[in-house]
Design brief:
Layout (H helix, E strand, L loop, with lengths): L1 H20 L4 H43 L5 H14 L1 H25 L3 H16 L21 H15 L6
Length: about 170
């Protein structure tokens, strides 16, 4: 339960920074990784350390392609890796699924509130055409570097998902 409280605190701080400034401080991510690795090492020795490290790598690996396509920032990727080190590989995919669902709901709300359904639909069709045509790479308009693009603070979505996940499985990490 101690690790769960620390991870919820970390996720809350990271989510706040992402919501407010669209940045995730490296100190939050680094502290989360350090505490997670230390906790799992203390609780499970070399096996715990290995599990935590594999969760870190898996979390980063799953989101890294989206970073390469400029679909999300490095802070989102690094923080999800930090969460992976906390929840270990066994729970990375369920946490990612929940994070994507929360992020998707946030995106729908953002599109609706900005009345951008038409433009968003055109962009989705354009992305699909580019992918089906073999074009791999960042979209010329739909990327996080475009100040006009609608951007979901994904670490905030991760924080909400972490709260839902850990509270619903409270004894999971103790």
């Amino acid at each position: 339960m101690v690790l769960a409280v620390l991870i919820l605190s970390s996720a809350t701080v990271a989510g706040y920074f992402d919501w407010r400034w669209h940045r995730v401080p490296n100190w939050v991510t680094g502290l989360t990784v350090a505490v997670s690795l230390a906790w799992h090492t203390w609780a499970g020795g070399a096996t715990g350390l290995s599990s935590s490290a594999r969760g870190l790598l898996l979390g980063i690996a799953l989101l890294f392609p989206l970073f390469l396509l400029r679909g999300m920032g490095a802070g989102d990727v690094k923080f999800f890796g930090a969460l992976g080190s906390a929840v270990t590989p066994r729970h990375v995919l369920p946490l990612l699924t929940l994070s994507l669902l929360v992020g998707g709901l946030m995106a729908l709300w953002l599109v609706a509130s900005r009345r951008a359904a038409g433009e968003t639909s055109r962009n989705v069709v354009d992305i699909a055409r580019r992918v089906l045509g073999g074009a791999v790479g960042p979209h010329p308009v739909v990327h996080i570097d475009n100040p006009r693009a609608l951007v979901v603070p994904f670490t905030f979505a991760q924080a909400v998902a972490t709260w839902i996940f850990l509270v619903s499985h409270w004894g999971l990490l103790t």
